Amino acid sequence: MPSTSNQKDNLETCVLKFSDLDLKDTSLINPNSRLKAELDGNTRKKYSFAKKKAFALFVKTKQVPAPSSECKEKWWKCCQQVFVAQSSIHRHVATQHAEDIYYQTASIVKQLTATLSTSKSLTSLDKTTSLKEYLPHSHEVSAWLPDTSCFSLDELMSNQGSEEGEVLLYYCYCDLEDPHWVCAWQTALCQHLYLTGKVRIATEGINGTVGGSKLATRLYVEVMLSCPLFKDYMCKGDFKSSRGGAHCFPELRVGVFEEIVPMGISPTKISYKKPGIYLSPDEFHKEVEKFLSHENQEQSDTILLDCRNFYESKIGRFQGCLAPDIRKFSYFPSYVDENLDIFRQKRVLMYCTGGIRCERGSAYLKAKGVCKEVFQLKGGIHKYLEEFPDGFYKGKLFVFDERYALSYNNTVVSECSYCRAPWDQYKLCSTTQCRQLVLTCPTCQGQGFTACCVTCQDKGNRKASSLTQNSFKEECECTARRPRVPRESLLNCL
Asked: Which of 109, 152, 229, 248 has a Cα-to-Cα distance from 323 of 20 to 30 A?
């Protein structure tokens, strides 16, 4: 685990008492000050140890090997900038990543408290009691990191600047009693292996997309499969891999949430434990083949349902699918409610990127009690394309990182937003503060059409000084003309 001289301080002796922090609050003016303020007077002075440890860990994960021509052994890379002096990266992190340090500090504080309270409870356990479920909490987070002493820094971080590394996509639904401990462990684990990406943790499980060298991702999988919390629920096949690396993500984000995929409904109301029937890629392929063979699909008793957002299905989808024109998965329950009639007495074949959205999406649809049967593609499109790259899925697979899409076949199913020429390579809207994706071909880009719509292009031509922080949020013409929850007819299912 990355360390500094401050890390050896005996933090375990600090009994930290604090109120339940809202780790989802992103509007903090001075987040570290707020965290410190929520500690009581006796332990406030101990907070600095946790903050220093969080700062050191964050800086460590930005470390990259210096060019061989340089005398220095290491540089740092963050926010697409290279820092050659330690003071420079420290200044950058302090000014630009205060919120990240806050989250990390809070996780360390919670981890320490969990470790202390659990250690005390263990002493009172009967010796015949199984320690399996308590094992992770009875050790320091550092005890659950892989031994990397036999590898050089260059081996662990190799290929971070190329496409020869790897990106892992995985999820695991299981009951986690202490997601904050898991959060602290995952943060330390990813930093230890120089992985970037996003990891969501909740009482219902874990959902991650991480990138790094192939050595680092291999070690990550080994640790996950050996952890008592997950080893009975996961296998190697649950990790979907693709070419990429740490460079595919701007940073590492690990957090605790209510849901590991944001459907907007509490897991206590719609549980992952009541999903649809799993179909392997081969079984799903045969079902789609049977569905497409019907001369009149309108009279078919089957609906092929895409659970993803419109910008995902726009560049790649299964033939004959119903692809809801929704912008967020949290709109999916409302979409089902508004369109129950089209699902009535139907066999529904559901699919998504890696399978996770189908888990609770199928549970929600089943709970409505209108379908004959609800099936879901095990492992999602990712696994299907590994077996059937030229199957019934046409176009690219959208991914939530800086690659935007993965290509398995040469079919282009989308078009340029401006000239309607075949095109499927997304770029971010060029207008400052607008975060929408745009399909604009090289010819149109050369003519200056680089925003998501004409209205947004006009806004981008104004002086930036006249714009407020939220000037473009939900204001683009291309968003305003799209119903939040569309109503479908059976014709849309074709």
From this structure: 248
